Amino acid sequence: MDAAILGNIVADVIALPLDLQHPPQSGSLTQIESITLTTGGSVCNVSIAMAKLGMKVAGAGLVGDDALGRTLVERLREAGVNVDRVCSDARAQTSATIVAVAHGGERCFFHTASVTRLINAEVFRRSLELFRSCRWLHIAYFGLLPGLTDDLPELLKELRRSAPELKISMDTAHPPASRDKLDPILPFLDLFAPSRPEAAELTGQREPAEMVASFRQRMPHGVIGIKLDRDGCYLDDGASSFHVPAFRVNVIDTTGAGDAWFAGLICGMNRGFDLNDCGKLANRVAADCCAAIGASAGIRSFQDSMSGIA
Question: Which top CATH class is 3-22+32-307?
Fold first, then answer.
């Protein structure tokens, strides 16, 4: 298996376009273009993108014992994602988000974490056999896994001992959890790449190089990236650093772009690309994501994604 994705599994209800600056009056009806139920959250977004890029990928996490959960599991399976470690839990509903998309593609979220809050060390350990069989483990999002975060340093230490060749990456939510919870995790990561606002909150710095330098105090090895939205990304492997420009597209919906970016980056690293080319592939996949509604519809095959870089 190329990768396992551990984290939240979310039903996204995407509504667009919404005038977020001028909401309708109480009791009134406003007509909009579309309301769509799609897969969301890190497990769905990253794993489906990876599968479209030709990777063998598995999801790990929890859904509720409800219609939304069953729908998400079936859609993951249809996308070619291994769902053996996606488990239902009747104690809470499936995590869900209302995604309000404005003209131009920017969006805000109304989220209920629900069953994701039940992801803990026990859930992690139930998936150890899967993780050990993979080349990559991607964990997301730091900030939305409160039942797991405090135990992650010890869990990753144990996993490192039993699977020394496994590469581990982590993404953050906005706002992220506190820096004091992140620092014990960083030494066990091979890839850490928050967005610019998340990195600013965690480091107090404004420039990507300064943000990376702050994280390097606790993560001396591996790749640190800063996602820069329309400005592309900044990548640093400890020996060299690159600013990789973004690709321009007609933005429809930016939902899931950060997850698509991670899928592209890990795909490139898994194929042995140099860091700059990994950044190009990541930016291409993220740009394609923004050109369609939802987090997965715009993702193309590896060959088509690469053709869009030339």
Answer: alpha beta
